[in-house]
Amino acid sequence: LYFSKSEISKILNCYSIGVSIGEWKDYALDFNSNEAIFCFFKHSLASPDCILTKFKEKRKNKCFYRLLLRNKKNSKYENLDSLIVFLKRSQISII
Q1: What is the DSSP pairing of strand 73-77 with strand 26-31?
Q2: Sign of torsion over alpha carbons 12, 18, 24, 30
Q3: How many CA atoms lie within 13 A of 37 on its CB side?
Q4: Which residues, 6 or more positions from 43, have their beta carbon under 8 angstroms from its beta carbon?
Q5: Block means of pLDDT (10 residues each) for the chain, length 95 residues?
Q6: Where are the alpha helices (DSSP H) in the chain?
Q7: H or E element: which one contains 56?
Q8: Neighbours of 38 (CB within 10 A)
């Protein structure tokens, strides 16, 4: 299971916003037969600050997305766009 080119583009666009505000500094990709994982890191040696996972449910034979943000929120989404919207909202802070 892999991320498509358009999915990678959307994820990297969101990642670049996090980099520009100083929230993230590094990322990692991991793939296996059941899921594709994209991790955002605040520091290179730290644990991931945000984990975005694409996985396939065997019962429905459909791909879903999961977001684990700061080890607190574990949300399941049917499409990547709704996940990206939530992630961008969590990055915006009022000063």
Answers
A1: unpaired
A2: negative
A3: 14
A4: 25, 26
A5: 92 90 91 91 86 86 87 81 85 55
A6: 5-20, 80-91
A7: strand 50-57
A8: 22
